[in-house]
Each structure stands twice: as C-alpha cells, then as structure tokens.
Amino acid sequence: MAALLQVTHLVKHFDAVIAVDGVSFALQQGTCFGLLGPNGAGKTTTIEMLEGITEPSSGEIHYRGQRVNAGAAREAFRNDAGIMFQSTALQDFITVREALEMFGRLYPRTIDSDELIQICALGEFLDRDTRKLSGGQRQRLLLAMALVNDPQVVFLDEPTTGLDPQARRNLWALVQRIKAQGKTVLLTTHYMEEAYELCDEIAIMDHGKIIAHGSPKALLAEHFDEVVLQLPRSDILGPIENLPLKLKVQDDIVEILSSDINAAVRTLLAHDVSLAGLQIRPRTLDDLFLALTGAALRT
Amino acid sequence: MNLRRFLTVLAARNREFIRDRSALGWNILFPVLIVAGFAFAFSGQPLDQYKVGVYAEAPLQKLATVKEEQAFFRTSYIQFIPVVRLDPAIIKVERHQLDMLFDLDNGHYWINSDSPKGYMLERVLYGAVIVDAGGGNAPVAVESGGYQRQTVSGREIRYVDWVIPGILAMNMMFSSLFGVGYVIVRYRKNGVLRRLQATPLSAFEFLSAQVVSRLWLIMAISIMVYVGANLFIDFTMFGSYWNLLLVFSLGAVSLISMGLLVAARIRSEELAGGILNLVSWPMMFLSGVWFSLEGANPLMQKLALIFPLTHIIDAARSIMIDGAGLVEVSTQLVVLTAMSAIFLLLGAVLFRWK
To answer: How far is A259 from chain B (nearest CA, A)?
Structure first.
C-alpha cells in the first residue's frame, strides 16, 4: 500500500548544528506513528518540517505521492493537515467558541462543529475566555483546533506534556477516537507509555537520527529476550557480587535480567535471597531507549 | 488573496482590540487629555507678552497717572507689574524674569543688554515718546516711518490650534507603531503567528488584515478625539474635512506599514520596544508636533523629511490652518504614498512567522 506521507533523507541544520540528520520514514493511512526521543533529539524539528513550519535543509516530503515543498501541493497538504503544537498561544480576549470558528473559517473544509465539540468535550466552557482554561481543557481545545478542518493527517507534538495523569488519559482516549475515524496521526512524545498505548509504529530518535524503527512490540521482541526481576536491595543479605546473575542496582532496587525466570529464581533461593518482595515485569520502551542510547530519557 | 481568510483575521484582530478595554480607553483618553491640557494651559492671556516692572513709592497710583500721561504705558501686550522693592526687581531684570524696569520716582529704567525683549521694549519706548511729542495725534506716516498702514482682521491662530494636527498625528503614530509592531512581535513570541502559519492563511492576507484593522480603528478613534476635543476647545478648521481624512488615512497607512517593517522579524518585545522608541521619539521631536522647525538648523529640517509624521503634520496643518486643498498638499500625499508602498513591500518581503 502506498504511504500517505513519505519522508526521505530529511536534513535540517541550524548553522553548524545538525538538528535532523537524514531521517526517512513513511506513514500509512489510518495509523498512529510515534516519534520518540529525549528533548533535543530532533522530534519537534522533524514534525515542524512535515507541517511546513520549518524549511528542510535537504530531503523530500511527499503527501499522497506529491512533493509538498510549494505551490498547489503544499496548499492541498495544508488543507488536509491538522496541527497541534507543543505550546501554542491564542489571541487574547477570545472564547473557545470564537477560536474554533476563527480557525474553521481559515480552511475550505470544516468538520461539523457540534461533533467537534462533543468529541473534544468542550461543551461546558464554549463561551469561556481561552486564557481561563485549565491545562487539560486547553489541550482539548488545541486538539479541537487541529481537527477543525476535518484533517486526513493529524500532527500532535507532545500533546500531553504538563498534564496530570487523568487529563493525559483523557487525551489518549481522544487520540484513540481520532484513529478510529480512520485519520492518520503523527505523534511526538517522550512518554514511552504513551507511545506504547497509542502508536502502531514508532521511531526512536536521538541526536537527529532514527536509531530504531518498527512497531513497539516488534522492537521490544527484536531487542530483548529477557524479563526483569526486581528485588529490594535489603532482601539480598550477602554481597551482591556473589550472585551469578546479570543484574544492576538502581537506588534501593536490584534488577535481574533473565530469559529463564525459573533458573533465576532457583539461583536466588540457592543464595538465601528472600523472594517476598520479588516483582517480575516485561521489558518496556524505556528499557529499549536505555539500551539503544545508553542514557536515561532526558526529559 | 482569499477574502474569507482576510476577513476572519481582520475580525479577530478587531475583536481583540475592542475587548481590551484598558488599551482602547487609553487610545481614546490619551490624546483628549493632552489636548485638554494644552487648552487649559494656553487659554486666557497669551504667554508671549512683555513684562515691565514699575517701581515707585506708591506704584499703583503712580502707574495709573503715567498711563494717562505717557503712551508707552498704554501699549497693548505689555504687562505692567507694580513692584515695591527696587533691588530685587533689578535682579529680576538681570535674570530675564522682567524684560524692563522703571523707577518712576527718579526717572530711570533698566533693561538687560542681553535680552531681545528688553531691546524691543526700548524701541517701543522710543516710538511712544514720538507719539507723545505729537500729542498723541502724530500723523500715521510719521509714526510708521513713511509706510502706510493697512489692516486685516481674522481669527487668532492659537498655539492649541497649531498643535492639534500634530497631536492627532502623534497619537496615530504611537497607535500604529506600537499597536501593530508590538502586537506582531508579541504574536510571534508567544506562538500565535506560528499557529496561523500552520493554516492556509498567507502572510499577505495576515498583514493586510493587520493594516486594515489598525487603520479603521485609528481613524475611528481619531475622529472621536477630533470631535470630542473640538467640543471644548473649538479649534480652527479652514479646509475640507474629506481632505483631512485622506491625509490622516494615508498617514496612518504609512505609519502602520512602518510598524510592520520594524516587526517583520523581531522576536523580542524588549528589542521591539527599543526600536519603536528609537523611531518614534525623534519623529515626535523633529516632525513638528510641538514646535515649528522653521528657523532651525537646515540639516535638521532636511532630516525631518525622512519621517512620515513630518509630511502628515505639514499636510494636516496646511488643511486645517491655511485651508489648503489637495493640490497644495499633493507633495505630502505623494511622499506618504511612496513611503507606504516601500514600507509595506519591505515588511512583506522580510516578514517571518517564526
């Protein structure tokens, strides 16, 4: 199937600094694609080049097979794209309703406003000044503004940054609903759990390059055949170096990496380690990132 | 140019301005306060009269006597001030606080040899002596050195009449430069422009909407200020209101375009504020808002011509005070049109959303 959006060898440098270094990927219709990475990895620059906000230094972007660098193809892409920035200010003294109406009138095609209000749960504060919205309400408004033109492809740049867990979950539900409508979503985030929850496909970026690319499950399977056994440090009475296991200590937690849980547990029992505090968890995208970059997420 | 998008942005900007009560109030109140202040300050006696101290044992009675006997003391536009102590009055002449001082008891007078006003008063005194010698009925030809006297009459052009066009234009200047330039920099800094860039809206549509929005707001406010100030000052207007409207409209466009040019790329409000001040303050002082540049350094007069405000004020004064028509102010109209085109073109070319 031909890709809806095709990115090829995208490069962006700001003077001597290379922010994006030869990024290529493709978005399939109706999927959610996640760009992951720490701050400064090049996610936002990449998504801004796709949105047409930043000009690439080199490389190509094709939408439905057409290069979108200028002219009618860019105009068509603009009309089909919904964009939610990481941070956006609106004009002062404008209500939620007016903001939606204003942005709607900038596009030739708009979604039914009642449907939009219902999808994004904006009904309760339609006539409220946008400066008086809570963080979650504001993000829902910005998402609604991104959807106002009934877009085919939706760009969400760190949509849940700064939100409390409940508001974050609410927004995830909204993104799932957008996906269910057959829209294509490109999401950047540095929350691995968010990517795992929402994305069909992810690309992990660091220092401007994509260092891993695939579905979350496939990537985890590709890179890990181990699970993690976690124990409180205090449960291990003897010297930790005496345990013949692959392990690491983080604060007061000892993590044991093993592909054979039974063997690992037998070894622990043989060394008189209490299993009262034992927890077993699968490998996560956080682990994958650590494994690939050798550094903790720089949030 | 998509008219629907243009009108949408225009409406949004108008709404923002009108709802910002403090900014709106200040835009209206500020020029009214200035005009009212000037009307108050320059009402009553004119400030440019001469001041002559009169010392005597009983100065009031003595002054009444000499007014009957000597023409000089009946001269109009000279304020005669009775003084009771001679030495402090002499010091006032030294310091130009009095232009002349008479000791009527001893027949002396003092002037400051460095004072132009003292010089003029002394010449008036000499002339008055000739009038007195003719018994107050000397032939006109003698009094005026052979020149025949002709008279005209007309309404006085007060300072407030002269300064009103400048104040209206100055208010336009601040509203245009800061109301457009500063707002665009704020939009750019907080990301409003970036969000708009992500829509099909073009830079030309956005900038045009800003110009038109500010233009009609400025014109509406200027008309309100004009009418309101005229109610209690009753200032001079000899020309056509339509011509004045044309001059102010064109002037406002040139100033708004200048604001757009300043704000074309700047991202910092502090820098924008500094540059706008750098532009507006020289304009305010060199464009003839408060005082005429006639007689000033010719280089300064030439320098003032680079400012649109100079041409706006010149044309507005010509219309309001001299009753000039469009032909008489055509030079200023052409210059303002050219400036508007250049500023707009440069502003559009240099404009960056981010």
So the answer is: 48
Buried b (16+ CB within 10 A) or exposed e, B82-111: ebeebeebbebbeeeebbbbbbbeeeebbb
Burial of residue A115 (number of CB atoms within 10 Å: 0-12, 13-18, 19+): exposed
Domain co-membership, B35 together with B56: no
Are B173 and B273 found together in one domain? yes
Predicted ipTM of the assembly: 0.78
Same domain, A197 and A234: no
Same domain for A86 and A116?
yes
State yes or no: pLDDT of B140 exceeds 80. Answer: no
pLDDT in tens, B209-228: 999 999 988 898 888 888 87
pLDDT tens per residue across span A275-285 = 888 888 888 88
> B50 Cβ partners below 8 Å, 6+ apart?
B77, B78, B79, B99, B100, B117, B120, B121
With CA atoms as reference, report the closest residue to A59 among A18, A16, A4, A2: A18
CB contact (8 A) between residue B198 and residue A78: yes
State which residues form the domain around A245: 225-282
Q: For tokens 């109140």, what's the residue?
A: B29
**Rounded to a whole number, what is the distance in Å from the CA of B176 to chain A's nearest CA?**
19
Instruction: Check pLDDT > 70 for residue A116.
Output: yes
Question: Does A15 share its domain with A40?
Answer: yes
Contacts of A145 in chain B (CB under 8 A): 195
Task: Give yes or no for residue B312 having a pLDDT over 90.
Answer: yes
Hey, are the CB atoms on A91 and B199 less than 8 Å from each other? no
- Verify that B59 and B172 share a domain, yes or no: no
Tell me: the pLDDT tens digits for B252-281?
Answer: 999 999 999 988 888 888 888 898 899 889
> Does pLDDT of B13 surpass 50?
yes
| In a domain? residue B259 | yes
Q: Which residues of A80-89 are buried (b: 16+ CB within 10 A; e: fewer)?
A: bbbbbbbebb
B166 & B281 share domain? yes
**Residue of chain B minimizing CA distance to A86:** B191
Phi, psi of A279 (to 5 degrees): -130, 145
Query: Per-residue pLDDT for A91 more than 60?
Result: yes
The answer to whether residue A292 sits within a structural domain is: no
Cβ contact A53–B5 (<8 Å): no
The answer to the question of residue B150 being in a domain is: no
Same structural domain, A216 and A78 = yes
Indicate the residue type of B296: A
The answer to whether position B153 is within a domain reads no
CB B3 within 8 A of CB B140: no
pLDDT at residue A298 tops 50: no
Query: In which domain, by residue range, is B217 found?
Result: 3-42+158-350
Q: How many domains does chain B have?
A: 2
Where residue A177 sits, what CATH number does that domain have? Answer: 3.40.50.300
- At B98 the three-state DSSP class reads coil
**Residues A205 and A237 reside in one and the same domain:** no
DSSP H or E segment with residue B107? none
Q: What predicted TM-score, i.e. pTM, was given to this entire model? A: 0.74
Measured between beta carbons, the chain B residues lying within 8 angstroms of A89 are 190-192, 195
